[in-house]
Restriction endonuclease
Amino acid sequence: MELPKYHETFIPILEILNSVDSLKSRELASRVRDTYYSYLPVELLNQKTSSGANVLLDRILWGKSYLKMAKFVSYPQRGFVQITEKGKSRLAKGNLPLHDLQNDKDFINHRESVISEKENEIELDAVNVENASPQDLIDSGFSSIETEVKTNLLERLKEIDPYYFEKVILILLKKMGYGDFVETTKSNDGGIDGIINEDKLGLEKIYTQAKRYNENKVREKDIRNFIGAMSGDTSKGVFITTSTFDDSAIKKAREAHHSIILIDGAKLVDLMHQYNVGVQVKTVYEVKEIDNDFFEEN
């Protein structure tokens, strides 16, 4: 006997959720374990990861996360999970192979909205275990975890208060090494959300604009207004959004006399992850190797 793979928990998860309005994530994992896998030996049910987490519950929670990416389930409120109409339709078919989920349009769109170019080179769960080296497996695992964290981070950004989102951006720029920042008055910011010093002495200033959008793209008009709001004391600006920029907005920023940097949702969570803004270290793993110098005789 062996523990189920995370993708083998898809249908059990959907079946449990189909019988209730919504459940807390941890309660969902426990119900799936108790309903479908209680027959497993105790030593398997109690198996732990190197960080001390229960392996089976961890896999069920990963299964839930993948279902969320493909919109088979949703998070109606923080910490809760609910089956969607799409999930109910799929459950009626009685199966959901991993291949089908990976080729689902919603899953692909969701993944592309948060992954970086580097991560895009690593296909999700595409590592052949038999042919992969231990380092390949580690890299693939870390990539999957990083993508999941960035996915959740982008979702949280889209939920927070727009004014707090503007402050998050200034905190991020500060962490990236820029100087002190000033938040503009919210009632009349004139298209400028913040002013940040490019250097510690404040010799150069950068204007920022932050748009917390769910689906809407930033358009050419938004860039034009941003440029118009930049006063004569600076020619540099950063426009950040949780969504994306349409082609006309990108063209406008590129052709402007000002230097305008555009940061979309994927790039934003990349930077927040890199500079530890809104995230924290959960576990540190040590990979050791033989110290050959230790065995060298003088």
Q: What stands out?
A: The CA atoms of residues 207 and 230 lie 7 Å apart. The beta strands are 23-24, 73-74, 80-83, 181-183, 194-197, 205-211, 236-241, 259-263.
